[in-house]
Amino acid sequence: MPPSVKKIESSILSRPIGVFDSGLGGLTVFSEIEKALPGENLIYFGDTARVPYGAKSPKIVERYTMEIVNFLEACGVKMIVIACNTSTAIAYKKVKRHIKIPVIGVIEPACDIASRLSATRRIGVIGTKITVQSGAYPERLKAIDPKIKAFQKDCPLFVPLVEEGMTGGEIVNLVAEKYLGEFDDKGIDTLILGCTHYPLISGVISEVSGPGVTIINSAEQTACAVKDTLEKLGMLNRSKKDGKRRFYLTDASVNFIRIGEKFLRQKMKNIKVVKVWDILLQ
Ligand code: DGL
């Protein structure tokens, strides 16, 4: 292989992976990718000016998603990870059609593992209003195994609680009891956390659900899917050095940095604020 081709190839490998969410929930996916692929360069985009997505209309979520995807593409990423269930539910197919680089969403990896672990084939799914209304989870679970029965519940208060840093305590407990009570008579043995914010309160969710229910955190499975896909495509960065991290936010959110640093257990350097009007679709 001529040296110039080698150089181009290695520069493709060192291009960053772009991970995005409406706010800080996608950091649960970001942190699993960091653990699985420490040598990869990573960009995180948090749409902190427009969070939450979950109660907005599908049209607007699709638009926000495409704006972020265009922005990340312009940053030269080699792969896009939609670390947001709401965006995945609404716009995954459109994003896949729109760009040439590989795209990973969070719904397929979560459904794959849930279907492998559920013995009763009765699976609960919790998510934002739009994720639940989209029917993306039941559709995917049925496609894997028509015998699966999916029960859904939207949990709109969980995202603002997490964004406020309230990941435990009496209020979160009460809200969880109210929402998860929906599954009391459904006989589920598996519960998918269909929102990337929810792993931050998985302790409470797991306690309220009880020991008979396996909690599925899609972040870990998504990181596996990222690794497998890059490996298959020969696009893994096998560098022994820790990759670089860059964070883009649409609003300088003190909560994002405070909670993000606590969760990632590291200082968040390289944070830049991107003006929403600079990424608007024409
Ligand atoms: N973390 C997101 C998800 O996985 C979105 C939450 C929101 O913005 O409402 O759905």
From TrEMBL:
GO terms for molecular function: glutamate racemase activity. Pathway: Cell wall biogenesis; peptidoglycan biosynthesis. Keywords: Cell shape, Cell wall biogenesis/degradation, Isomerase, Peptidoglycan synthesis. This is Glutamate racemase. SUPFAM superfamilies: Aspartate/glutamate racemase (SSF53681). It catalyses: L-glutamate = D-glutamate. The active site is at residues 84, 195. It holds the Pfam family Asp_Glu_race. Substrate binds at residues 21-22, 53-54, 85-86, 196-197. Provides the (R)-glutamate required for cell wall biosynthesis. GO terms for biological process: cell wall organization; peptidoglycan biosynthetic process; regulation of cell shape. The gene is murI. It comes from Candidatus Wallbacteria bacterium GWC2_49_35. Belongs to the aspartate/glutamate racemases family. Its EC number is 5.1.1.3.
